[in-house]
Structure formats: C-alpha cells, structure tokens
Amino acid sequence: MKNIQVTGFAATCLAMGMSASAQQMPPAIVVVEDARMRILAPTIDVPGTVVSRNEARLASELAAKLKWIADVGTVVKEGDTVARLEEITFKLLQMEAESRVDREQARVIFLRAEKARLEKLDQKNLTAKSQLDQTTSNLAIAESDKAIAEAQLGHARVSMYVTEIRAPFDGIVTARLRNIGERLNVADEVIHLVNPDSVEVVARAPLNTVNFIKDGDVLEVHNDYRKGEGSVRTTVPIGNPQSHMFEVRLNVDSNLWTVGESVRLSMPTAPAREVMTVPRDALVLRREGASVFRIKEDMTAEQVSVVTGLGAGSLIEIIGDVQPSDRVVIRGAERLSTGMTVQIREGDSANGVASSGTSQ
C-alpha cells in the first residue's frame, strides 16, 4: 500500500514539474497578417508570353551588297544606322539625275527668255504668231521634263538614303540575319531589333472569361520565379472557333519581366463579390478540417475552424468566426495550439512567406 502511495506522489510531482517547465517555455515566434473583406472572383490560370510592343525584322529596300551590319547586343537609338549597303551605284545614279535636272533647268531658262522676246515682237507685229506658239509649247514640254528630272533626282536621293538601314525605335540588336558581303534583294531581312523597355503580356483565355474582364482591370501575373500585376490594355473578343479562346494584352512592368518569358495570368471566371479573406498561408489543414490561428489581445493563440471558399492568387475566402482586422498567423502555426503565448515578428508579410498550413 505504501508503494502505491509513493508512486502516486511521484506522479503528482512529475506532472507539476512538467507544468512548470511548460510555463517557462519561450513564446512561439509567428508572423501575422490581418483578415480583410475584399472583392474577389474565382479565377483560372492561363498561359501567356511577355513580348515587346516594338519588335521588327528590318529588311533591305534595295538590291545591293551588304557592306556593314551592327553586332548582336548593340544598343541603338531611334534613327541610328544598324546596317549599310554598298552605295557606289546609287551615288552614280544621283549624279546622273542631278545633271539631268541642270540640263532641263538650262533649257527652261532659255525658252522662257525666248518666249518673252517673241511676245515683245508680237506686240509690234514683228514676228509670226506660229513661232510664238511653238516656243510656248516647247517651254511647257521643257518644264514638264524638268519636273520628271527632279522626280528622278528625288528617287535617286531616296535610294542613297536607304543604303543605310536605320532603327525605327530604340532597341537592342538581337540577331544578324545576313552577313557582310552578301548580295541582297529587295525585302530581304537583314537584322532583328527589339525594344526591351516596351513590353506587354499576350495571352489566350477561354471565351467563358471574356465577360468578366474589361480594359483597365488589374490581373495577377506570375511564374515560377516572380509575380506581379498587369493592367488589361485591350481584349480581342473574337474567339477562335477551333480553340474557343480569345486574345488578351496586358501592360506590365518592363523592369520585372523579360521579353520571351513565359507567365501565367489569373483570369476571373465569375462576377466578383465581397468576402472575408486571408492569405492562403494562414490555413492549417488537419484531419478534423481547415482552421486558422487568431492572435488575441493577450498575445495568445486561438484556433478557429473555417470553411474555405473561392481563391484568387495568394488570397482565399474563409467562412467562420473571423472578423475584419483579426490578426491571423501566416507563419509559425505548425506547432501552435489554443492558449499558447506567441511573439509577433515584425517586418514580414504574406508575400514570400512559406506556407504554414500542414496536413496531419
């Protein structure tokens, strides 16, 4: 009987010691964020690509030999020369056209003077009327020939000008499509130019989402490496009959995204509504269901059971005993239980925080 009493006393002491040890444990470190009422809509992710709004394959406008071309990676400004053609043939054509204009100009000057002289004689009846008419006709023909010569000179000057292929916008040379010394024909592509500072996202979305977006709406844009936002610049609400998709274009930050990068867009699939939301990282998933941990004013944790609803990006709707501005744990909830004392770590947010939800 004594042995039983001693054993019971030892167990009581052991329990008291464990309770004291628990009370001496330091508070759990957690990161929190406020629950909020937000306007959300169910979304689906659709693939998209970052493209430049200014991208061109510049071609030759002449049949000539390629004399020089800019190196790949060269940064150019609008109007800078990116390729140069052999110009000697076009220089000779320009010289020929200039001489033809000078010749026709001299002829016009002579006939104008001759016409003025004959008009004075005609007033005194000292010349034949037919001679004056002939000179007037010759002058009109000479002026027409001069106009043709000037047009030919203009064409020769244009040809000389386009022997240099110039950048139509600021950009970077991304590819040399021909090599120095090659003979080019008209419309042969020579160089590829891209402006990396003028980007947008092009995506194709299901037709059942077209009624839930409009120009100016802000959508989430993300991939495996980063995420951001883009505003809808335009939609092309004419679906492809085979794919049942339509095109969406978004303005995005050129400092965040790179031309050619693959991304995903979160597209709404139903009208938006106001719901209670928390970051997805706040959810704790266990056998008994989903819950969140709310931090009370005395800095203790309280587990609250919730039902999840629609999700949009990093946010999710919850239904339960959670009020706006309640502080919910988004990191550090794995080992929490109701009544535990916590310490809030400042300076962190839901962005970039690892998920605290666990399945047990």
Structure description:
The protein is an alpha+beta fold. It folds into 3 domains: 23-40 and 273-360, Beta Barrel (conserved putative lor/sdh protein from methanococcus maripaludis s2 fold); 43-53 and 198-268, Elongation Factor Tu (Ef-tu), domain 3 (Beta Barrel), CATH 2.40.30.170; 61-193, Beta Barrel (OB fold (Dihydrolipoamide Acetyltransferase, E2P)). Helix content is 25%, strand content 38%. The chain has 3 helices and 23 strands. The strands form 4 sheets. Strands 1, 2, 17, 18, 19, 20, 21, 22 and 23 form a 9-stranded mixed sheet that branches. Strands 3-12-15-14-13-16 form a 6-stranded antiparallel β-barrel. A 4-stranded antiparallel sheet has the order 4-11-9-6, with no helix packed on it. The longest helix has 36 residues, at 88-123.
Radius of gyration: 40 Å
Mean pLDDT: 86
Looking at the overall shape, the CATH architecture of the largest domain is Beta Barrel
What percentage of the residues does DSSP assign to strands (E)? 35-45%
**Shape assignment:** elongated
Alpha-beta classification:
alpha+beta
Low-confidence stretches: 1-6, 9-15, 18-22, 350-360
Could you give a short description of this structure?
With 360 residues, this protein is α+β, with helices and mostly antiparallel strands. The chain has helices at residues 2-23, 88-123, 129-161; strands at 28-34, 36-40, 43-52, 55-59, 64-69, 75-76, 81-85, 164-166, 171-176, 183-184, 189-194, 199-206, 218-222, 227-236, 245-251, 262-268, 273-279, 284-286, 289-295, 301-312, 315-320, 327-331, 342-344. Helix 2 packs antiparallel against helix 3 (129-161).
